Amino acid sequence: MAIEPQNNSDETTHSDAQAVDTAWRVHSALLTWTSSVDQKASFVLAIDGAFLGIAAAVVSQDGRLAPSGPISVLLLSLSVALAVVAGGYSLAAIKPNLKTIVDSRIDSGHFIYFGHLKMMDAMRIRSALTREDILGALTNQLKEMSEICWNKHRRVQRAIECLRWAALGACFYVGVTLLL
């Protein structure tokens, strides 16, 4: 359904129904983006786990790639530390973002989030759905969700960056170890 703007004294406005429909579409897009970033974080975490597994195997072996000097030990240590930080960022990104304290007063502007709904009885939910400002509630929820989604994306970016530097350090480690 296309949104047709209505002119109202030089401002483009939409009916409440159109605005609510648009808000639900944005809500759906935010859910998709959040799901996508969770998948990316899980993928980065899997790569990170493989990296740490390989690092553990290298340290425990007596072969050619075992740390042989202070430079190689430093490079391997930094790489492992960065990989651990990357794992932390990935875990922080996929961690469910539940509010630990939900105000029991539940103001009328917050009744979309299931954490708020669980604090309300069925009659209060019905009242909110029929009498409260749905657009206002959706607006509040969109703001909250966009902040959560943004933070998840930033954490995944940081995880990838840490893992990139860890991999670079590991490459230098292999090079230094083979040369020494």
Largest sheet: 2 strands, antiparallel
Arithmetic mean pLDDT:
81
**β-strand number:** 2
Helix content: over 70%
Strand content: under 5%
Structural class label: mainly alpha
Give the overall form.
elongated
Run of helices and strands? EEHHHHH
- Low-confidence runs: 5-10
Continuous helix count? 5
Order of strands across the biggest sheet?
1-2
Note the gap between the termini: 67 Å
- So what's the oligomer here? single chain
Global Rg: 25 Å
Give an overview in words.
- This protein has 180 residues and is mainly alpha-helical.
- Helix content is 72%, strand content 3%.
- It contains 5 helices and 2 strands.
- The chain has helices spanning 16-60, 70-94, 114-117, 122-131, 134-179, and strands at 6-8, 11-13.
- Strands 1-2 form a two-stranded antiparallel sheet.
- Mean pLDDT is 81; it is low at 5-10.
Summarize the structure.
With 180 residues, the chain is mostly helical. Helix content is 72%, strand content 3%.
Topology at a glance:
Layout lengths: L5 E3 L2 E3 L2 H45 L9 H25 L19 H4 L4 H10 L2 H46 L1
Antiparallel strand pairs: 1-2
List keywords for this structure.
180 residues; two-stranded antiparallel ribbon; elongated
